[in-house]
Amino acid sequence: MTISLFDIFKIGIGPSSSHTVGPMKAAGEFVRVLGASGGLDQVRRITVELFGSLALTGIGHGTDTALILGLAGAAPETVDPDDVVRIVTLVSSTATLPLGGGASVAFERNADIIMRGDELLPRHVNGMRFSALGGDGSNLHTAIYYSIGGGFIVGEEDGSEDESAEVAVEFPYPFKSSADLLLMGMVANIPIAEVALANEQALRSADEVRDGLRRIWRVMSDSIARGMSATGNLPGPLDVPRRAGTIHKTLRERVRQGQSGPLEVLDWVNLFAIAVNEENAAGGRVVTAPTNGAAGIIPAVISYFERFCEGSDEAGIFTFLLTAGAIGGLYKENASISGAEMGCQGEVGVACSMAAAGLAAALGATNRQIENAAEIGMEHNLGLTCDPVGGLVQIPCIERNAMGAVKAINAATIALEGDGSHVVPLDTVIETMRQTGVDMQSKYKETSRGGLAVNLVDC
Ligand code: SF4
Asked: How far is the CA of 37 from the centre of ligand 1 (A)?
């Protein structure tokens, strides 16, 4: 199986791919199936039960909002972030919901979204059970979905993943491991980006791939721009101030005065990552890369490439995205990109690894150097826990993206200084991440029951 680049990089809204984008898609899918069965007209009420991590951190991650939007017919890629409050307020104030955007059914946000944090459904820690009820309270239809990270969902009944997460087509280079990827690149004498491009063109035309890559980068750079111009505090009880606007002003002023310090490049990389993740925390439009919590790392490193690396151009950005997408697919296929399964090593760690590989590729690295960069990017994130304070994707998530971006640039730099030979293969570090994630206690896996989430008091 090979995963499409456009499933790794999905356009959506914040703050979480597993807790916002996935549940919104699942809610939309539930309504779609209900409509296809001809049962929509009989529905009078909808209930949703959330299990495990979705229940424990769902409020802070906007899961309730996402469910309302999805049930009301909105999709993550197209919903206007400015419409979200209006739709949710309307549903809350009328205690009704326009099912699939059509007829209204009863829906009370607090009563009909039921949190079952101490229970788990069998297949994954992020389970959801949707029920459609008739006028006499009888159950017309029930369906279970799992949000398995990065905005991917899987249904209980058929076990198949959504969209083309794992696509059943003949790929010219069907790699399952980094060893496969390196071998195929070597035999065909092409870089990893061309392997990924050839596979992507088995699914869509060359023009569609190019347009899609352009769109991904446009949404990423827009999220940086919006983050840098926003002011005020982020939503939620922590009252975290948005910093990107102030940092941007300071940096621009320094440039104007010709004062560049020794860490100026670092300042800009930090700014780009913080801007995206503040936008994500505010529920704005971002690209999962490979998740929302880690959405700032790849845009920050591409911006670094664009702004500070000689010879950078659009072709280089495409090479970056194609390479990073191929590496992200390896983690998705052989481990997981879900914080609820792997801790933050599966989100920020994977994004760092992808960005390191992408940057190395854009700077002309060999395939062995690219694989080395990806390996370094993960090796030094192994064991990273997920402990979001207050269940919000803010602390430590926002700054953690800045740290991840800087680490990715360093990983690519170290790899480019060598000739590609290294001791630990990328496949080994992916398997190590998987085992570490399995061994990690659940309190460190997006439950807000351990780490900073319990040691930072008065939040
Ligand atoms: S700590 Fe990491 S994995 Fe957890 S919500 Fe934040 S970014 Fe995601």
From this structure: 38
Report helix angle 63-71 to 84-94, nearest 10.
80
CB atoms near residue 102 (< 10 Å): 13
Element of type H or E holding 115: strand 113-116
Q: Whose CA is nearest to atom 8 of ligand 1?
A: 293
Length of the chain: 459
Q: Is the pLDDT of residue 86 over 70?
A: yes
Q: Within 9-141, where are the H helices?
A: 22-36, 53-57, 63-71, 84-94, 109-112
The residue ranges of DSSP E strands in 181-337, in sequence order, are 285-288
Is the confidence at residue 161, as pLDDT, over 80?
no
How far is the C-alpha of 316 from the C-alpha of 305, rounded, in Å?
9
Q: Which of 347, 357, 344 is nearest to 411 (CA)?
A: 357
Instruction: Tell me which residues have their CB closer than 6 angstroms to ligand 1.
Output: 293-294, 339, 344, 347-348, 386, 388, 393, 396-397, 400, 446
Of 429, 406, 196, residue with least CA distance to 320: 196
Beta partners for residue 110, in sequence order: none
Q: Determine the residue of 57, 292, 348, 389 to mutate for testing ligand 1's pocket, defined as the one with the most ligand atoms within 8 A of the Cβ atom.
A: 348
Ligand 1 atom 3 nearest Cα: 344
- Amino acid at position 355, single letter: A
Alpha carbons 455 and 459: distance in angstroms, whole number: 10
Give me the sign of the Cα torsion angle 276, 282, 284, 290.
positive
Nearest CA to ligand 1 atom 4: 386
Which domains does the chain show, CATH number per domain?
A: 14-155 (3.30.1330.90), 178-202+204-455 (no CATH)
Cα–Cα dist 272/127, whole Å: 33
Who's near 394: CB < 8 A, 6+ residues apart?
234, 236, 238, 240, 281, 388
Q: How many CB atoms lie within 10 A of CB 422?
A: 18
Max CA pair span of the chain: 73
Rounded CA gap, 323 and 329, in Å? Answer: 10
pLDDT tens profile 171-221: 999 999 999 999 999 999 999 999 999 999 999 999 999 999 999 999 999
Give the CA distances from residue 360 to residues 322, 387, 400, 411, 415, in Å, rounded to whole numbers and listed in that order: 12, 30, 21, 9, 8
Q: What is the pTM of this model?
A: 0.95
Torsion of CA 435, 437, 441, 443, to 10 degrees: 180
Cα(127)–Cα(192) distance, integer angstroms:
35
C-alpha span between 152 and 335 (Å, rounded): 14
Overall average pLDDT of the 112-123 stretch: 96
